[in-house]
## 1
Amino acid sequence: LHAPCERNTAIVSSGSRHCRPHTAPNSRVIRASARVENVAERLNSLVDEEVVSGRGRSTPQQVRREVLQLVQDLELNAEKNQNRVSPEILDGDWRCTYTTREATASPIQRLIVGAGADIVPEIFQTVRLSGDPKRMFVSNKARFSTPFGAVMLHVIATVTGVDREKNRLQLRFSEAYFEYERSERARHNAFRVPYPVPFRLLGDKACGWLDVTYISGSLRISRGNKGTIFVLRRL
């Protein structure tokens, strides 16, 4: 009989046991994990404050530099080989808390991200990758405040492909419209006005992609094909 062993044992193919000492968790891994968590908390605290000022629209240069540095730190420390575009991890409703403003952005994107929080108080994104692959979509919604009530701009893109190696969603924008709500409690009174963009006639210009460069818990960082950085919180 084998003598009792107070240390960890390894079972080998011959059926014999070999004692091996307990191994402590890698301190570097612990420190790295703690640091990433601290970076995420710091980013969340900064962008939560920026929602009030327009999600980066009027951010002081020093704060903007810190936000971008925190974003880069999290992207560099994202889990290797992590599938960040699976329905289990990405599906759901998200609130945009910070965006960059690129000169190459489309007119509709500049309309949304270029406005202050007094005009566009909220921007949301819904991702649906589960179910029928032909019905996968990303829906962006921006709520405008007007003297006549709330107006929601919907911009919907069909997901035409999922690249798990690049953690990328291939998109084709298919529909956009304004929805005017006479009353938030009476959505049946809402009516739609099409956004004047002929997506079907734009061909490849209506296509783009969205990378998920970091995701953990309720925090997500994405980059679009126009170079825009998005920081989002899960609802």
Note: Helices lie at 27-52, 61-76, 87-90, 107-113.
## 2
Amino acid sequence: MSRATLPPSFLYGAFFGCTTYLLFRALSPVLLKLFGSQTMQQHVAQLSPGKQYHFHSQLPSTFHALVQIVGTFNVVFYGRQGFDDVLKEGTSPSIVFDDRTFVSYGITHLGPAVYMGFFVGYLLADTAKSPSFKDMGYVYVVHHAAASLCWTFCACYRVMQPLSCFLQFNELSTPFMNVRQVMLTAGYKSSDLPVTIISLLFFSTFGAVRFFPLTFIIRNWVGRDYSAIQNEVGTGAAMMLSVFVAVHVFLQSSWFLQMCHKLIGMFRKGTKSTKSE
């Protein structure tokens, strides 16, 4: 292995990811008091500490998601100018890394390493603010810990940047999930039309960016990226990253299948209600 140092761009991103999380989390109860209905405020006040943690995590979660969508859009759809567009045939983009803070491409002209760090800073702050791992949910603890370790390792050894950016772009579905939860907390029922529309948007975007691309991620990892990363950082590191990829595939598949199960149940319930009428 070589170059086992974090690029400054990653550290800048981690700092801002952490501080903006804390800022928007502090703003959440203020905005609730200013704009939330009396009923909603009472409902939130009656929640357990764990559920209050999740509720007030939604504002920083949404801000983080929007930052990632804007920041990684260009990398996902157009690549890293001067890097992906000059790759020799057969070279895996996973061993090419742009560690600059400022770049000539993208909407914000901040480099992809900045957004990788922003992602890790957000995850660490979110974990630190949870009342307990039980309240946070052990699945989310595993997700946050695995992602933080994986992204930090990749930044240290300058590997797997394109896949990291694509997984960050997966946050496209997050705002819909958060809006749905806020609506339910405000008193809407899951069967109400506005909630149904938001739920379908969440389901659709989750499937489009998180679940259906998994087959391509697995194919590229097995057929191209693993061997390239193995040659770059060694077999042990490549195997460790393989575990991280496997965890990601398992979690995203599990969550999507759970949503499918709920959606089928709602459809069957609606069909039975129609027939009974």
Note: The chain has eleven helices and no strands.
## 3
Amino acid sequence: MNSFSVLGIIVSAISILAIETEAYTWPIPYQSVSNRPKNDPYCQAGLVPFCPTGKSVNSMPFVDPSDIVEVFALKKPVWSFKYGPLMGFFNIMHDGLGFRSKKTGLNYTMEWYELDQLFNCTFPHLLEDGNLKWCNQGALCVYDGINDTVWNQYGFIKKVSEVSGSQYNQFANWSLYDNNTAIYYETWSIYNNNNTDNSQVMFFDSFDCASWVLR
């Protein structure tokens, strides 16, 4: 990265902070798309491929409408498979959802996260021609089972609700739609200052694994 590129990024960041907040409606709304584009082949995951044991693209488990489905909140430190509890000390956590059918006893895990891993989504790549490329697509990973050891070792699995099979199936259909329209992972929440009073204005909200769970 040359000095001019670094200076340009710094100047752009300062310009954002200097924006007249009264002249715009904040925060900037999340930009959904009508259909998910193919991921840029330039963008590659580093440590592990995206969703290596997951179901095929645009597939979801559905249940009998009369079933009762237990819902679990899942949380653990990011990259705990490699760094153990380390990221948890900095409150860098990963969230997911677990589901269990009472009729069949089958469990499912659903996680929404970056296609090309966290740092690729957090910072742009500086190309040789001086342009910036973002590798910031996120997507839903769905796979059979809930790995108690992985989630409980440094985090937790907590039952939060029960829903009918019909309600769960509505959620599953929404998840398929959302996965093809809400495709951009955004690591940062950007504010005009670090105050906690009424002077603080959010410019951009984060859109990550926790955002998907909360939605």
Note: Residues 27 and 203 are 5 Å apart (CA to CA).
